[in-house]
Amino acid sequence: MRRPMIGVSIERHPAAALPCLIDTGTSRTRLPGWMANLIGFDLDAAEGVQLGLGGQIVKACPAQVTMTTLAGTMPTTVWFCRGWHSPFGLLGQEGFLDHYRLTLDVREGWFALEPSA
Fold first, then answer.
1. Is the pLDDT of residue 46 over 60?
2. CATH no. for residue 108?
3. How far apart are CA 105 and CA 60, in angstroms?
4. Does pLDDT of 1 surpass 60?
5. Contact 29/79 with Cβ under 8 angstroms?
6. Total structural domains in the chain?
């Protein structure tokens, strides 16, 4: 089965786009710190929390953004993670899945996102 990944872009920044893994096990949507730099969000000045991600401790800072995917466009909160240099993001329960209904068929190898009511 292919992994449930979709492309995400932030606001009107065409360079701020990356593939993201739909991660039902993570509480919040997390994006790598380099994306914050692309949209001009200053991670050094932002308040954040320390957390473990990808086998390291990173500073995660929340930011209100407008996120666009093939499933739609929505204002939401994402957590940019300074020190996490991943080529992909994690779409978690808060900031992404709380906007959609996810249907996953492991046997047939597909998934679908529908706007939540």
1. yes
2. 2.40.70.10
3. 32
4. no
5. yes
6. 1
